[in-house]
């Protein structure tokens, strides 16, 4: 069997490569935030701009800027379109 070398992304690499791009953040409480990643820290706290909030599948509005605390995050998904 041939040895295949696969690139394994580290969580911080995914965030670094997503700076200034659209991401989706799913958090506890059936909430989802979609917006532009402005920054992050080692605790996975993320700062988003132009944020669309969805709760239980219902759009709740758009916010200019938002800080999402890392211990509430279930997953982060970079946008495929960027």
TrEMBL record:
Entries under Pfam families matching the protein: LSM
Transmembrane segments: none
Similarity annotation: Belongs to the snRNP Sm proteins family.
Highest taxon in the source lineage: Archaea
PROSITE patterns the UniProt entry points to: SM (PS52002)
One MF term in the entry's GO annotations: RNA binding
Stated name of the protein: Putative snRNP Sm-like protein
Keywords: Ribonucleoprotein
GO (cellular component) term, any one: ribonucleoprotein complex
Domain called Sm: residue spans: 10-82
